[in-house]
């Protein structure tokens, strides 16, 4: 079953209701059925199959994105487009590295030490919570409410679990079970957030990915090394002591460079201040924070991108689009759009930011309204025709930067509707 593409939502949720005196040439009279692609003809062999996965041969498209199904060692994965496919394949490699790390003696030693002789950061909080709070950064103070008792209780639970462990389990498994007694509050106070960010950086993944298995494995591995007072070593490096050289998600996913350096609580405060600077109301700010489909990384990425555009533009409307994303697919696509607009703005600064329907768009100094479409394959469908043929602002030219492929009929349809089409 195909998930509605976020681009479809953007173009069908309300187009420009502006009067226009422009007339257009005749558009194609018939529509296309989005094609189904074959993975073997679309992707290199190394991407189609590995020791971790296999991509199913037939890949349907929805008029904008190609949908892939991955059968992996860790279950079935649905991907909405080439961008997500690359991200999920990278995450599979990261999960493999984490699983391999959990089987090393160094990991088992870290778990054992985290219980028998925890690092000072953990011990000090349990023994002197008030002193630990005084040393904590003021920016994350609200995370420390009533936390002293919760850590002490968590430590007690860990000791009880270890004392009453299942003797039939091997030591590594028993230690892992005992370590689960430490909650999120304890981990955050002990600096666990920063340690986990370092783990994500080494793996080259988004630290806020919605991949539940990846998150679980990162937390398990990070806690063992961090609370045990050991340097984080992943995969082969956990045995050999070598350094990780994975490419970070700032390159593979397009996240801001500071995503690995700032904790979630610090990002919340930074993003709030940034939205206030943009002129956002408290209602809009709260709507952005409350949107569960918008990940922390996507939220920060979109806000950082908006800061790059001129103040006289429609930045708040674009922020409102983020607040109103109705699915993770929409949030992912919106972030990709903003990243492309940001890159284009850096290359040739826009005079303003506007929206076309629910699509953020740039306005060039020459008066051209420019949308960016990071898509896989555009077909000429009723929805895309409605978007292309919507009324336009008088005296303005329109340009579509297509970061992907489109059918000849779709290209002709856009051009007939008055768009300049540029395929990247």
Largest sheet, order of strands side by side?
6-7-8-10-12
How many distinct helices?
21
Strand proportion, as a percent range, falls in 5-15%
Query: Distance N terminus to C terminus?
Result: 29 Å
Keywords: Signal
Furnish the topology, listing elements before pairings.
Layout: H1 6-12, E1 36-38, H2 39-42, H3 45-48, E2 53-55, E3 58-60, E4 67-72, E5 75-80, H4 82-101, H5 105-116, H6 120-127, H7 129-135, H8 147-163, H9 171-179, H10 184-189, H11 192-203, H12 212-227, H13 237-240, H14 249-252, H15 264-278, H16 282-290, H17 296-306, H18 315-323, H19 328-347, E6 352-356, E7 359-363, E8 368-373, E9 377-378, H20 382-388, E10 397-402, E11 405-406, H21 408-416, E12 419-423
Parallel strand pairs: 8-10, 9-11, 10-12
Antiparallel strand pairs: 1-3, 2-4, 4-5, 6-7, 7-8
What would you note in describing this structure?
The protein is α/β, with parallel strands linked by helices and 424 residues long. It folds into 2 domains: 99-257, no CATH class; 262-375 and 379-423, no CATH class. It contains 21 helices and 12 strands. The protein has helices spanning 6-12, 39-42, 45-48, 82-101, 105-116, 120-127, 129-135, 147-163, 171-179, 184-189, 192-203, 212-227, 237-240, 249-252, 264-278, 282-290, 296-306, 315-323, 328-347, 382-388, 408-416, and strands at residues 36-38, 53-55, 58-60, 67-72, 75-80, 352-356, 359-363, 368-373, 377-378, 397-402, 405-406, 419-423. It has a 5-stranded mixed β-sheet with strand order 6-7-8-10-12. It has a 3-stranded antiparallel β-sheet with strand order 2-4-5, covered by helices on one side. The chain has a two-stranded antiparallel sheet with strand order 1-3. Helix 6 (120-127) packs across helix 7, helix 15 runs parallel beside helix 17 (296-306) and helix 17 (296-306) packs parallel to helix 19. The longest helix has 20 residues, at 82-101. It starts with 5 loop residues before the first helix and ends with a strand. 40% of the residues are buried. Residues 1-25 form the signal peptide. Keywords: Signal.
